Amino acid sequence: MGVRFRLALSLFQWGRFSEALERGSTQPPARLYPLAELERSHASSEDATMVSRNKLPAIWALHGWQDSVVPAIGTCKFITRVKSLYPNTPVLLDLGDGDHGFDEDLTAGDEIVRRGTEFVRKYWIA
Fold first, then answer.
1. Which single residue of 12, 25, 40, 83 could bond 69 by disulfide (Cβ 3.0 to 4.6 Å)?
2. pLDDT at 93 over 80
3. Which domain holds residue 117?
4. Does residue 37 fall inside a structural domain?
5. CA distance 95 to 40
């Protein structure tokens, strides 16, 4: 793990990342909050980032339950909200046992990777 990664990890864990990212700002940038961006985008019928008002591109979310940097509950809330706002969007949520970066040691032979790979093939690769 490099020095910059350890610094970023520490900033996240201590709630100071947005200060480092947005110098001089007391408010974190909106792009750091996917759930808020999802709500904002859904409210705007003219938002070009959405494929349509009824569907987003397929989403595979992979997260560690014990993540100390980005709590897994945020990903769960995001996926729940995607399903509510965009019910036609294919979603796969995989929650693994581990902290932030738990997936670094996973291989193509792990069940969670196989399941995600099949999902990706089905929706992302034409």
1. 12
2. yes
3. 55-126
4. no
5. 26
Closest to 49 measured CA to CA, from 31, 32, 74, 63 = 31
Alpha carbons 30 and 71: distance in angstroms, whole number: 18
> In this predicted structure, what is the pLDDT of residue 61?
95
Average pLDDT, the chain: 81
> Do the domain assignments include residue 49?
no
Q: Are 93 and 77 in contact (CB under 8 A)?
A: no
Q: How far is CA 52 from CA 48, 79, 89, 97, in A?
A: 9, 18, 10, 34
Bridge partners of 96, per DSSP, are: 64
Collapse the DSSP code of 95 into the 3-class scheme (helix H, G, I; strand E, B; otherwise coil) and give the result.
strand
Domain assignment of residue 46, yes or no: no
Q: What is the pLDDT of residues 18-36, one digit of tens each?
A: 666 666 666 666 667 788 8
Same domain (yes/no): 67, 17: no
